[in-house]
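Note to self: keep these together.
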Amino acid sequence: MVMWVYDFTQNAVAIWRGSKMAMKQQILREISLNRTMGATSLCLEKI
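Structure:
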C-alpha cells in the first residue's frame, strides 16, 4: 500500500490529466477522506 501511495504521488499529474471525469471524482473522494499513514498501513482518523 505504501508503495502504491508513493507511486501515485509521483505520477499524480499524469494520472489526473489522463483520467476521465469518473476517475477524477474517485481520486478526489479517496484523497479527501480523513486518513493518516501508520507505521504499516493507511488508517482512518476518528473525528
